[in-house]
Amino acid sequence: MTTQHPGDLIPDNLMLTDGGLETVLVFEDGMDLPAFAAFPLLDTDAGKERFRRYYRDYMVLAAQANAGYVLETPTWRANPDWGAQLDYSRDDLRRVAHEAVTLGGGLREEWEGTGSVLVSGCIGPRGDGYVPGKAMSGPEAADYHRQQVGDLADAGADLVTAFTLSYVEEGVGVAAAAAQRGIPSVIGFTVETDGRLPSGSSLGEAIEQVDAATGSAPAWFLVNCAHPDHVLPGLPEQDEPWLSRIGAYRANASRMSHAELDEMEVLDDGDPTDLAGGYLALRSRIPGIHVIGGCCGTDVRHVAAASEAWLRVS
Question: What integer pLDDT is reported at residue 11 of this predicted model?
Answer without folding.
Answer: 61
